[in-house]
Design brief:
The longest helix is centred in the C-terminal third of the chain and has 23 residues, at 230-252. By secondary structure, the chain is an alpha/beta fold. The protein has one domain: Nucleoside phosphorylase domain (Rossmann fold). A hairpin with a 2-residue loop joins β3 and β4. It has helices at 32-39, 75-87, 138-150, 188-198, 230-252; strands at 25-29, 43-51, 54-61, 64-70, 92-101, 111-120, 155-163, 183-185, 201-208. It is globular, with a radius of gyration of 17 Å. The protein binds 1-O-phosphono-alpha-D-ribofuranose and uracil (URA). 1-O-phosphono-alpha-D-ribofuranose binds at residues 29-31, 73, 97-98, 166, 185-187. It holds the Pfam family PNP_UDP_1. This is Uridine phosphorylase. Residues 25-238 form the Nucleoside phosphorylase domain.
């Protein structure tokens, strides 16, 4: 007898991923095209679903079954994808994104491994009080750092500023001057808070593509915001391997 056809409720509503059967580890990225590029590194990759900005693949990286999925731009939309993947059984997440550098010495194409994130994400404040921290799983920080070192990728570690507004507005951006923040992006704190609330594992590695607000960083290190440069593409190519390899290391550690 053949298997019954999937019913209307066997797929989650926004990502359209199946409720069961996905691997328990995932690389999540903003851009659906980056999801396809990372999936191209896998053995036996298949596209699982593609709805709105959420494009999901599964495949195998060095013997480890993984999901690769895109979450689009911004914390609220990304949170939907993170929650649906968690509902579908994903237990370990690595976000592989792009970011603007904020700390002198961090240059275009470098990787930044997030240790924690400032929660200006526009979504977690509606889920849990503001004092609740957004932290990476320590083992994910170490796995990403080791994977970056082994890949020969220039890399740094630090706290990132997850900020819902991409464009600067009237409110000055200097509120964290002197706080040593490493980079700015838009989704990491949403991932870290979701994972902590559900008892899951999460980490993040970001490729520097400049900086989107002129007064955030000195321009000796970066060339201004432009994600369409060769130096960024080279960083993205290294970062994809680092993210997948970190999942393999975490699998060895049974995380
Ligand atoms: O490259 P991704 O993963 O999308 O990450 C960064 O790029 C987007 C902004 O251009 C935001 O999503 C930001 O977090
Ligand atoms: O949010 C982002 C993402 C990439 N680069 C930036 O400067 N900001």
């Amino acid at each position: 007898m053949s298997a019954p056809a999937p019913g209307p409720h066997s797929l989650l509503p926004l990502s359209r991923v199946p409720r069961t059967g996905l691997p328990p580890r995932a690389v999540v990225v903003g851009d659906p095209e980056r999801a396809a590029a990372v999936a191209a590194l896998l053995d036996d990759a298949v596209e699982v679903s593609y709805n709105r900005e959420y494009r999901t693949f599964s495949g195998t990286w060095r013997g480890v079954p993984v999901v690769v999925a895109s979450h689009g731009i911004g914390g609220p939309g990304a949170m939907l994808l993170f929650q649906e993947l968690a509902d579908a059984g994903v237990r370990t997440f690595v976000r592989f994104g792009t970011a603007g550098a904020m700390r002198p010495g961090i240059g275009d194409g470098d990787l930044v491994v997030a240790e924690a994130a400032v929660r200006d994400d526009g979504v977690t404040g509606q889920l849990v009080p503001a004092e609740y921290p957004a932290v990476s799983t320590p083992e994910a920080v170490l796995a990403l750092t080791r994977a970056a070192r082994e890949a020969g990728a220039p890399h740094h570690r630090g706290i990132v500023w997850t900020r819902a507004a991409f464009q600067p507005g009237l409110i000055p951006l200097n509120q964290y001057d002197g706080a040593g923040l490493a980079a700015i992006e838009m989704e990491v704190s949403a991932l870290f808070v979701m994972a902590s609330l559900r008892g899951l594992v999460a980490g993040a590695v970001l490729v520097v593509d400049g900086v989107n607000a002129d007064d955030l960083v000195d321009h000796e290190s970066t060339g201004g915001y432009d994600p369409h440069r060769e130096v960024v593409a080279e960083g993205v190519a290294r970062g994809g391997v680092v993210a997948l390899e970190a999942l393999r290391i975490l699998t060895e550690e049974q995380l």
